[in-house]
Amino acid sequence: MSIQSEKLQQQFIKAFEESVLDRAVMQIILHAIEVFSRKGFVGTKIKDIAASAGFSQGYVYTYFNSKEEIFTKIVELASDGAWQSVQMVSDMEGTPLEKITWLTEAFLSSDSIAMQHWRLILLQTSTSEAIPEEAKRISKEKMGKPFEYLIPLIVQGQQSGEIREEDPMLLALTYFSFVQGLGIARMQTTQDLPFPSAEVVLRFMRKMGSF
User: Fold this and answer.
1) How many CA atoms lie within 13 A of 169 on its CB side?
2) Which of 50, 59, 70, 120 stands the most exposed, by the fewest C-beta atoms within 10 Å?
3) Contacts of 44 (CB under 8 A, 6+ apart)
4) What is the DSSP letter of 193?
5) For residue 199, how many other CB atoms are within 10 A of its CB?
């Protein structure tokens, strides 16, 4: 992983910590993601989240009124994290293709906080009818935000000759589909299987002859 990708990962973590200033709330959220992922929304109870986090049920209730509220908060954090990560890399020094490569490396790192985003996406896919309406609203409202930052990068890369001439929206959609699919596959895989590098993932986007 490049130095820039590691720096980006640190920015991911910092942004998450700034979004959740209370350490107890952060612990509840991280453990809730794990429990929701294993048991699904319907099968998860507050006592499960509390036990996983090492807290009493009463202590969890001092921060959240219900599992619905916890889940909705996770959706909000994950949705914001998805677009903020692209915004962060956009502000870095480098060519458009370099920035997208660093973003991909940071996304697909096994210990990336971004993995929580993909885990939640998997959870939403499998329990879409059961999740709270407010969570659905937030997810729908913010689902287009990452594209607002990635598409300009793609256009810049096309103008500089790094990225192939193709509909920028189609390239962005393909990119997020690849990254989300690989992220979910990494979480579901129990064996130590090799994963493609960012360079391999981005072959569909790279213009012939660019680095």
Assistant:
1) 2
2) 59
3) 32, 35, 36, 67
4) -
5) 12
- Note every long-range contact of 41-45, with CB atoms under 8 Å and residues 24 or more positions apart, other chains counting: 41/67, 41/71, 41/123, 41/127, 41/130, 41/131, 42/127, 42/130
Alpha carbons 7 and 101: distance in angstroms, whole number: 13
20-60 pLDDT, tens digit per residue, is 888 999 999 989 988 887 888 888 999 999 999 999 999 99
* 129 burial via Cβ count (<10 Å: 0-12, 13-18, 19+): exposed
CA 142/CA 14 separation, integer angstroms: 21
Tell me the whole-structure pTM to 2 decimals: 0.82
What is the amino acid identity at position 66? Answer: S
In sign, the C-alpha dihedral spanning 201, 205, 208, 211 is negative
Task: Count H helices and E strands in the chain, helices first.
Answer: 11, 0
Residue entry with tokens 């985003």: 117
Element at 70 (helix H, strand E): helix 67-90
> H or E stretch including 203?
none
Q: How far is CA 142 from CA 75, 122, 130, 146, 211, in A?
A: 10, 17, 19, 8, 33
